[in-house]
Amino acid sequence: MEIPLTGNIRDVSLVKILVALNRNRKTGTFSLTTPTFTKNIYMRDGDAIFASSTYPDDRLGEMLLKADKITVEQYDRSVELLKSTKKRQGAILVELGYLTPKDLFWGVKYQVKEIIHSMFLPEEGTYAFDEGELPTQEVIILKMSMANLIYDGVKKIENWTRIRAEMPDTGRVMRLSADPLNLFQGIELSVQDRKILSLIDGKRTVKELMENSWMTSFEALKILYVLWATGMIEQIAPGSVAAAHKAAAQQEVPPPLKEILQPHSEEEEALMRRVDEIFPRLGELSPYELLEISKGTDGDTAKKNYYRLAKEFHPDRNYAIADDSVKTKLTAIFDAITKAYNAVKDGSAADAAPSPAAARKADETDEAAKAEDQFRKGIEEFKKGNFWGAVENFKWAVKIMPRHPGYWSHLSLAFSKIPGRLKDAEEALLSAVKIEPFNADHYANLGLIYLKAGSQGRAQSNFEKALKIDSGNEKAKRGLSQIKK
């Protein structure tokens, strides 16, 4: 079902809208407006990275007060200074010693999550999704699974009529989704959720699941609603229960529940090595190589490998990785694995010729290898102190791969070491910022350039931007300390 990008949540539930935006990896601003407020969710590649609200109780100071992080006296004092200095309340609270920078960062993340969760409560309100570039100001990156945000938001709904209306009929049979994108989301299920999940066998109806849940009907229905809303469970085709059982037997069978719930334990460093090994070769690997099987492997083994790899490379389970480019690579690998499994399953893998997309991918991989070679040479020249030589190599790298922020950042660094070339260093780094506007290091490095140029005001502004994105950024901290001296 196509979800309209404008409308009223009375007609299309917020859950369906956010799931659709997440699945389609949309970038832009989602807004919800009621007579009381307008709240925004800023999304990048389907993930929520920030939120804002016009509702007074959603302001940072009020949130910190309600969370018992500051006292009423501290709140009142910060408001007084806010009015007289026009500084941000968070910065004032840190300056007064009421909060540490780490506390402030926690507070902003808490504020963002609470705003998003509160958007699930209204039953009516106009919404719109404005696809396109995000504002580079006033935004931090919220490292949190979109599935978890939806899960926690839905948990706050206490309206039986609303949940009942949005759920499938109680006579429908429910089953675990066979789609790894739904199964292996980064949702932190409660003990009760897991118990309900264990009852879902593709044979019981919603009514039977509620009756066998050892809890009240509303509690059981609400958990089923959460699981259904996030896509972990799905309804079997309508009809009689017997027909539903027959349909279930013909559909893809998901892995055992214990396999779904078992946490993926691979360390980040090991995962990064795997990503760096597979991603550049996506255009040349066969479906069998992607699934790590040989031709003639039985269907059960192919399926087992597919679910194992889908779990390993699910973008949502690795949302906390610091490098934002990894999400893009994981998504590409996940999609390629799914395509490979479908090809093996339907028998088209054996004689599948490289698609135009695969050929383009191979060309792109070749270009990426050339750019990486120039970048590596630039690093070698930089280490030797040959900054002009490094500049030339880095220039070639950005010419080949102009959308790679790391190459622009290193070009800037090389320019900054050459007398009289700070302007070139600034321009190169601004290119990196344009591509990757939420990387704290870019702003910290800009601050260092401005500091070197004697522009303390611009330096301070960029150091503060860096700390707003990452309160622990050491370069920005040192830069601010240097200015204060």
Q: Can you offer a commentary on this structure?
A:
With 485 residues, this protein is an alpha+beta fold. It folds into four domains: 6-143, no CATH class; 158-252, Arc Repressor Mutant, subunit A; 268-352, Helix Hairpins (Orthogonal Bundle); 360-484, Serine Threonine Protein Phosphatase 5, Tetratricopeptide repeat (Alpha Horseshoe). It has helices at residues 14-23, 60-66, 72-85, 89-95, 101-118, 146-155, 160-166, 180-183, 191-199, 206-211, 217-229, 241-250, 257-261, 268-278, 287-291, 299-312, 325-346, 356-384, 387-400, 405-416, 422-435, 440-453, 456-469, 474-484; strands at residues 6-8, 28-33, 38-44, 47-53, 126-131, 174-176, 233-235. It is flat and about 75 Å long.
Provide key terms for this protein.
485 residues, alpha+beta, Arc Repressor Mutant, subunit A, Helix Hairpins, 4 domains, five-stranded antiparallel beta sheet, two-stranded antiparallel sheet, 24 helices, 58% helix, flat
Mean pLDDT across residues:
83
| Helix content class | 55-70%
Number of β-strand runs: 7
User: Which strand order spans the largest sheet, edge to edge or round the barrel?
Assistant: 1-5-2-3-4
- Cα-atom radius of gyration: 26 Å
End-to-end gap: 60 Å
Structural class: alpha+beta
